Amino acid sequence: MKVEFVPATAADLAEVAAAGAEFRRHWESFQNMQPTPAFVGGVADIDALGYLEYEGLGLPGGGLPALALVWGNVLAVQAGLRWVRAKGEGCGGLWLGGAEWGPALLWPYARLAESRARGNPQYSKDSTLMMWVVEELIEQVSVPTATHARLRRFQLALEVGVAVAEQPGTAVDWWTPAVPGE
Questions:
Q1: pLDDT greater than 80 at residue 88
Q2: CA 7, CA 83: separation in Å to the nearest integer?
Q3: pTM
Q4: N or C: which end of the chain has fewer CB within 10 A?
Q5: Are 136 and 151 in contact (CB under 8 A)?
Q6: 17 alpha carbon, distance to own chain's centre
Q7: 20 backbone dihedrals φ, ψ, rounded to 5°
Q8: In the predicted structure, residue 41 carries a pLDDT above the cut 50
């Protein structure tokens, strides 16, 4: 079976944005919640997904496919990956890729389906999976590059659980190690 990857279209990216909007509406449907996360790829989105899971508040109507787009968008924005569409039997959908890893790197839907099927960890499945994936990406970038530094910043933000001031669509920028050549 051959799988081909093509860049995500405007309609694909609109699907990602629609999933974020669906999660915002879901969050806002509950009383006495913390301020609504933007669900546009910020680190706070991962904490919000964990909160929904921990409190047993469920997923909005889009279910796991929408969760995969919201979770994947955090990885796309924070790690600088790009959305690509898979064309192939049984593997269709949006994947993430990047220059350092080739046209396709991971399928958020499959990663989350596996994570949700496991018994452990009991809570924080989404953030734990995100930490594992970021570590995997860091291991694949063998030389210090801007991508490596960006992944390390993202990893630190996940590990310390700091809600840093973010602007939608930007990576955390409060800690930047020296990167040769920059």
A1: no
A2: 7
A3: 0.82
A4: N
A5: no
A6: 13
A7: -60, -45
A8: yes
Strands (E), 8-101: 82-87, 93-98
At residue 120, does pLDDT exceed 80? Answer: no
d(CA 152, CA 138): 7
Q: For the chain, state the CA radius of gyration.
A: 16
For residue 4, the cross-strand partners are 87
Average pLDDT over residues 31-47: 88
Residues 154 and 149: their CA atoms lie apart, in Å, by: 9
Q: DSSP 3-state assignment of 110?
A: helix
Give the confidence band of 15 by pLDDT, cuts at 50, 70, 90: very high
- What structural domains and CATH numbers belong to the chain? 4-160 (1.20.120)
Between these two residues, 52 and 118, which has the higher pLDDT value?
52
Q: Which residues pair with 93 in a beta bridge?
A: 86
